[in-house]
Design brief:
The structure is a homodimer. Chain A is α/β, with parallel strands linked by helices and about 250 residues long. Chain A has helices spanning about 20-30, 90-100, 120-135, 150-155, 175-180, 195-205, 220-235, 245; strands at about 5, 10-15, 15-20, 40, 45-55, 60-70, 80-85, 105-110, 145, 160-165, 185-190, 210.
Chain lengths: ~250, ~250
């Protein structure tokens, strides 16, 4: 099986895993799995299990854990990405899917001066996140925070590097700010209209460095994707620590 | 007006610009433009025009060119991105939109061993590309090639750096390959199932360096977006040559 399966930590009981209904149905009806088949199950909290299927019932699938690992596919750097809630929900979903694939640890929907919505469809986004988690073979499901203001996010933040991705930023590149490889990064990206000038000032006051993502004006969700991607590419040079991830390929 | 307008080179006649019907309608009906308003028009071939509207008719809008520039918003590096045609058309469109925003110069839909389609909707993709061109304030519309095999693309390629973005790549990072700032880059990304082993061998034979985009398995369109983004972030350090782009912000 090339895709991982998801089961919450409560589904792991000693050396056994009981897959939730939807995963069980997918295994049985779509993938035509049989007893003896081997799959990878992740619990979204860092647990990674190589599992052999023992039993495929009408409503559940039970398997035995053959091997356990921790944090397979997880980056060393902890990235929180705050993105202004977008008017077009599908664009926010595109961002969420890509950010999970790329290794984000926390997504914070931001309500700002220029956002035209103040709510998200958390259930739907959670489904997108779980699908991406399975697809990209990570083991931790990122947190999806409640919508909040940039000020609230910054007030509670502990990240050792805070970035404001901003079209009119001073000439500081994202790369230059990442050169010393921070272990935790908080990056803020505005909604379609960007941040208001006083929001920029307040973020800088709260320790954010305004950075540019290049010469072209990116859509908000593109900026969010690029920010996560750039942090990861700078933090995970090839040749370091990949061994643990390659076994299951 | 915060978004640019598009008109093909044939619409520029001396010091006048005649906007095509759809752009004219948008200006008149949606944006409620009036004579005397100023807009930016790009011709998709590097031409950038600051235009003052003279006349808004039922079917066309005519303006006078106040200022001309060349290649506003264009990167120095010429990037061609070949991406396997995806089964889900909307995912290929997402890639195309983001790649244009990020500065790609040529997009090549690839037919490979594992692609399940061999055609694209070129008209629809062209609309996506023009919308992205206007939104991101570039002046060159990237080329959209006809679907072709990786072998055909490589046979005709002149890029001084050829990359194969590949999940099982050797431990060569994209960054390390870009360190000396190539002026033209060709990057190949497979479809959902990746490249077949013999396709990888043939690409390497044709001068491609296999590179990894990080520890997690990215969806094909995400890999394409990340590849373009990484090349641009490495090729356009902040503080260099941005002056020309900031005037219109």
């Amino acid at each position: 099986m090339t895709t991982n399966f998801y089961a919450p930590p409560s589904a792991v009981r000693g050396s056994r895993v009981v897959l939730p209904n939807d995963e069980a149905r997918h295994l049985r009806s779509v993938l035509r799995a049989e007893p003896g088949d081997e799959i990878v199950v992740v619990d979204g909290e860092g647990g990674w299990y190589h599992v052999q299927i023992d039993h495929l019932g009408a409503e559940q699938v039970v398997g035995s854990i053959v091997e356990r690992r921790e944090d397979v596919g997880e980056p060393d750097v902890h990235v929180t990405l705050g993105l202004g809630i977008l008017t077009t929900r599908s664009r926010f979903e595109t961002f969420v899917e890509k950010a999970v694939e790329l290794g984000v640890r926390r997504i914070v929907p931001l309500t700002t001066r220029y956002t035209e919505r103040d709510s998200i469809r958390a259930d739907r986004l959670r489904k997108v996140m779980i699908a991406a988690l399975k697809q990209c073979r990570r083991s931790r499901l990122p947190k999806l925070a409640d919508p909040q203001s940039p000020a609230a996010l910054l007030a509670g933040a502990t990240a050792d590097r805070r970035l404001l991705c901003h079209g009119d930023a001073e000439e500081t590149s994202l790369q230059s700010v990442l050169r010393d490889r921070p272990t935790s990064v908080l990056a803020l990206v505005g909604p379609e209209g960007g941040f208001a000038p006083d929001e920029v000032d307040a973020a800088v006051e709260a320790g954010c460095t305004p950075v540019t993502l290049g010469r072209r004006r990116l859509r908000a969700e593109t900026a969010g994707i690029v920010a996560v991607s750039a942090v990861m590419l700078h933090s995970e040079p090839a040749g370091e620590g990949r061994e643990g991830d390659r076994g299951e390929e």
